[in-house]
Amino acid sequence: MDKKTIFLSSAYLAPVEYYTKLLAYDTVYMEQCDHYTKQTYRNRCVIASADGPLALTVPTEKAEGKCLMKDVRISDHGNWRHVHWNAFEAGYRHSPFFDYYADEFHRFYEQKYEFLFDFNMELCLWMCRQIDMQPRIIPTSKYITAPEQADDFRERIHPKASYRESDPDFTPVPYYQVFDQKQGFIPNLSIADLLFNMGPESLIVLNAV
Asked: Distance between CA atoms of 91 and 152, rounded to whole angstroms?
């Protein structure tokens, strides 16, 4: 059966599972009209480090009351751009493809984006171009509680959810990782982990899931 339409939340360098959905579906509705919640992939990614999985969080400005995702502003708190870039360098400088992508990738940490949704979308589209994916992504114009004739993964791809339970169709395919001899393969890290380790072959991994 062809996979037609899916709803996804906005995500910061989303995990591999998320990108398998971008590849599999004809149309992707990217939710920007939901109420923003913390401790999700909306502002968090998980990458590899010498000490195991490392969560990186984009700080956001505090808003009065509930705030729609499209209105969430990025904070400059904690020099986070420098912290995140250093974490990517430390985690991936010995990966096969980090140097190849580093200059373009670094620009996202030099430029200041005002809104989290825009930052996430630009990063997502850049990642897709590197992997040779051309998903049809449409930002939502209103919030639909229960989309009809579409799969809803807005809350199913979540740092606190087990993909084994929330997404039985997703079976991670092991690929080379910098620290795998020390830690073993760590599944479903950020798409950045797949790109920096596998480069142009990232698409083969995504198709094999």
From this structure: 33
